[in-house]
From TrEMBL:
TM annotation in the entry: 6-28, 65-87
Species annotation: Jiangella asiatica
Lineage: Bacteria, Bacillati, Actinomycetota, Actinomycetes, Jiangellales
GO MF entry, a single one: sodium:proton antiporter activity
Protein keywords: Membrane, Transmembrane, Transmembrane helix
Name of the protein this chain belongs to: Monovalent cation/H(+) antiporter subunit G
Domain of life: Bacteria
Family: Belongs to the CPA3 antiporters (TC 2.A.63) subunit G family.
Length: 116
């Protein structure tokens, strides 16, 4: 049983590290702000969660698991909100290329706010 847990831990740690590396490469290589935000939030958060699962499988202590759960919850709550706020601020300051947007739901909302 211990060997299976050790292997699962190693797989989670390697997969999480790989996803975090892919996110870092995406931050450097993607051309615009929205693409970089996507690379900075989605694979990075999943990578961190996999790393936390791998560490949790290795440690197996209730105190450590509680701390890992707190870190995971904080990351799940803050990363999407911060990415949303950065994207919205960039959009308002014309840092987002309009030709790359497939659907633009924010312009009508901002126009309504400006009229009222």
């Amino acid at each position: 049983m211990t060997t299976v847990v050790e292997i699962a831990s190693a797989v989670c740690l390697i997969a999480g590290s790989s996803l975090s590396l892919i996110a870092a490469i995406g931050l450097l290589r993607f051309p615009d702000l929205l693409s970089r935000m996507h690379a900075g939030t989605k694979p990075q958060v999943l990578g961190l969660l996999l790393i936390l699962v791998g560490v949790g499988l290795r440690l197996r202590d209730w105190t450590d698991l509680g701390m890992l759960l707190a870190v995971a919850m904080f990351q799940l709550l803050t990363a999407p909100v911060s990415a949303h706020m950065i994207g919205r601020a960039a959009y308002r300051h014309d840092a987002v290329r309009a030709d790359t947007l497939v659907v633009d739901e924010l312009t009508p909302t901002l126009d309504d706010v400006g009229k009222g």
